[in-house]
Design brief:
Chain lengths: 258, 258
């Protein structure tokens, strides 16, 4: 059944008509050729997620009514923001798409020192828009109830300021992998509580510069390995998100039942 | 420092000269422009992994001597084989590359019923070769000590026969995610012992066919979800491998120290 992440709903969404237009109208009517009586999943990014039925279709709008709330959550219990040193080519699109499937709450493109790629001011808005569209589509296709937010590009100072807003911050650092570090990620994930926020920082292909790592450490944040193997810039965030899901949705979920 | 995965060594590798030729000679001499006295990591797929120093270079060969064994393992303690229903485009290359970074022991292309892609007999050998090359390069770049093996394409009957050789088999099944299944993966991973082998089966974009899933279940194998979100064909294997690493290298590793 098709899913759509829609603009924020009012508290009476269960009893009032829901009217969708523009891209939603186009996709439902012209792409999916849907008819009154057919059902879709709607989610509005606040955690509201439900089955809705099409009641009427006009030239520009689709009217729907609430049928039943979705009984399970497909969102991670913690908000994980992925900050990536700008990688080459289309890797950031890959990270946003697959990171969204894996549950990321937000993405921050980071103008890291060793990044070969630079975002000029006029390019930035366009790139951010394109990535946001990728996040939305990936969220809908992976049955998520929230669409991750793609931040504008941050420099180091801005990223450090942003980091202060999170419950926890981790910096994925290659040298830790080489040194055999293996307990910090587990330690942090085991202590995360539902509703916490974690900022995970990744370098570009050239890695984080020593002064960037030092700045994070000086601010009191830890670095960690993601296992003993060296992961590419576009693979590391996927490991981190999978580890969070495994720890917090499968292991802790199992603890609740077992 | 550069890494190479080389043909199997004899037991006296620590005392006898090591001679490399062909692609190794070309890469060391013509690409990396290495000289006698310089060092590289060598690994031979059996678990032997060490620092070696170049002693001499000729027109066709490079001579090296052992310097010191590598003191840590970058291999997963269990052998994970990833069987993928043939996905579209270059997704299998992605899966092999990133699956190798994440520690997979082997890959089995699976001619699943819903696969849009088919491998003809004459194409198969070429594709297998190309994927093997990708696995080798990814193994070297991620600092692995073994190069994963890319099997020839298997049909369902062949894959079921192959499955019988593993300590455990798991089938990633989308419907389990939708049904909220959340404990089987943890249960299996918690019980894995170092040296065990696990075959993980993934469907193509269209998912596994009901009769394929039934065949695995009939053979006594379980299916499981990978968290509540629906993952793409090329993302699911990366989640699985990350979960194995997190459970067996980080969590159990931490238990040993803590």
């Amino acid at each position: 059944m098709q899913r759509y992440i829609i603009p924020p709903l009012t508290k009476d969404y269960q009893t009032q008509p829901i009217i969708l237009s523009d891209d939603f109208h186009h996709h439902m009517v012209h792409v999916m050729r849907m008819k009154p009586g057919e059902q879709v999943y709607l989610a509005d990014n606040s955690g509201i997620s439900f089955v809705a039925e099409i009641t009427d279709i006009s030239a520009n709008t689709v009217g729907l009514k609430w049928v039943a709330d979705e009984d399970r959550s497909t969102e991670l219990p913690v908000e994980i923001t992925i900050a990536c040193g700008l990688p080459k080519g289309d890797k950031l699109e890959y990270i946003v798409q697959k990171g969204t499937e894996l549950g990321a709450a937000a993405f921050i493109p980071f103008a890291a020192k060793n990044a070969v790629v630079k975002w000029t001011a006029d390019k930035s808005a366009k790139k951010q828009q394109r990535l946001q569209k990728i996040a939305k589509e990936a969220a809908e296709q992976s049955h998520r109830q929230k669409e991750p937010f793609v931040h504008p590009v941050h420099n180091l100072k801005e990223l450090l300021a942003e980091a202060a807003k999170y419950s926890k911050v981790l910096v994925a650092y290659e040298e830790d992998a080489k040194a055999g570090e293996g307990s910090i990620l587990v330690d942090i994930l085991e202590k995360l509580e539902p509703g916490d926020s974690l900022l995970f920082v990744f370098g570009p292909e050239g890695g984080l510069a020593p002064e960037e790592l030092a700045a994070f450490r000086q601010a009191g944040h830890k670095s960690c390995a993601l296992g003993p193997r060296i992961l590419r810039a576009e693979t590391a965030p996927l490991y981190a998100l999978s580890a969070v899901s495994y720890e917090m949705e499968l292991r802790k979920g199992a603890d609740k039942h077992g």
